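Notes on consecutive records. When two proteins share a document, each keeps its own sequence and its own token line. Never mix them. Below: protein one.
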Amino acid sequence: MIPNNWTKNYYNIGEVAKIFNLNTSALRFWEKEFPELSPKKNSRGVRKYTPENMEVVRKIHHLVKERGFTIKGARKKYKTNPSETINTEQIVHRLLDIKNSMETLKKQLDSIK
């Protein structure tokens, strides 16, 4: 599960890619497609993602990878109603947590039989 609390001030592109199970090229592409995603770059051009950038990546990831939006559709959805995107993502993650808890409980009950 992707965290929603970020412990570091900056993440490099490799760390972000690993957290979200993406290629670094996908992140660079998203930067071009979503103006909201603009990580800082140092003098050598190394990207440094802030916690705010990580939240933008999380929202884009939710739309594209979890909900199946195209890039164009995700960009439109993100621009027109970002609060709905956040609420839907939170609901999906809560439901997945409940599902996992139910599956764990079922396994425990099955082992008692």
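Protein two starts on the next line and is unrelated to protein one.
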Amino acid sequence: MPYNINHVDELNILIRYNLNTTLEGIKVHKTATTENIAATKRLFDKGLITHEDGGYLTSLGHDAAEQAQTVLNLLNPA
């Protein structure tokens, strides 16, 4: 199954998290794009983040963000 635009939007949210600390989350403001707001809510509904508007990664979310960042780094070598 290929990535669809919702997957891409969710991956773009996950890669914004700092994986070096569990004390740093993100906040998706109501002025964000509708795509980012919807993607963040979907990640919350899937149990990957702690709040509908961002918050912190759950344990499962940390694993997903780590995978997303690894794939991005493989596709975009520095």
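For the record: The chain is about 50% helix and 10% strand.
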